[in-house]
User: What shape does this take?
Amino acid sequence: MSLDPALLARAVDLLKAGELVALPTETVYGLGADAANPAAVAKIFAAKGRPADHPLIVHLPGDDWLDQWAADIPQAAWDLAEAFWPGPLTLILNKQPWVPDAVTGGQDTVGLRVPGHPVALELLKAFADAGSHGRHAGGIAAPSANRFGRISPTTAAHVQEELGERVPLILDGGPCQVGIESTIIDLSRGRPEILRPGHIGPQRLAEVLGDLPAMHQSQGAPRVSGSLESHYAPVTPVRLLAPERLLDFLTLQRHAGVRCGVLAYDQPAQAGMPHLWRMLPADPAGYAHDLYGALRDLDHQQLGLIVVEAPPASPAWSAVQDRLRRAAA
Ligand code: TXA
Ligand code: MG
Assistant: This one.
């Protein structure tokens, strides 16, 4: 997939002018702005309705840009970049002193990733070549392109629905391949720690790091906004249920006159139930790919409740489990 040259030029011009551009990545769509321009970054927070102290991920065209943005880079960061970039992994590293507070939420660390989507990479390279901030060029700050606390968009149509005319340009790169946000690993303080689970799981990270990273236990103020208890949430209430309780619960809901949306991966639809049934793939990657689209779709159906058949509690499902727990919080 390659961008129309006129569209690419327009996107770069908008970014250079301090405007927003929504862009596809392999995880979810991002709402991008020039990361070296605090006024541009402020527009991201305004468009999303997001608290301004939440740090953003800076997207880079390649790992050769890493030391422009990060300082005291440990060998583990280079190794992970080599193994997984371009791809769905964000590294938290000590920042270079010049990196704006608007991007880091005033912290002394910065989140960096090279996304694995051809359109994002093409835009990042063209923006870096345009060099609007000299040696500080090339970074696009981009949180997920949804309003604060809502479901991340995995198609250009979702972005249109979330942000519409608040964004002057939405680049369409088709449906996102991964479908949930990147794995975030903090390398800024001693033992590597996973702040947000994702498609790249602890086992694969351990193959590069030599050791299993720690798992962050959320406490107090969020360093990661995705770690707020209620996040990635539809408007319709969401309830997670163990597979063996699913049918009884849905029968009760039927008697109570509550029409539910059901998100299942194993339990087939039941005859005589008024509920709206959606089957998701029974493997974690396929499930993640379809999850946000399915939640968004059910959220549009005027249902009383979205009931999710809880996936297995195994490590392979931990990223999906994490997003479902937050959707239900
Ligand atoms: O897959 C993704 O990561 C997508 C695509 C667009 O790249 N982006 C994304 O951004 O999910 P956002 O802003 O919705 O989530 C980024 C997470 C936030 O939870 C933020 O708090 C965390 O990254 N983050 C960014 N910089 C950080 C830092 N210096 N320390 C701790 N957490 C940080
Ligand atoms: Mg987000």
The chain has two domains: 5-215, 238-327. Residues 25, 27-28, 30, 54-57, 88, 90, 92, 104, 107, 109-111, 115, 142-144, 181-182, 184, 195, 223-226 surround threonylcarbamoyladenylate (ligand 1) (CB under 6 Å).
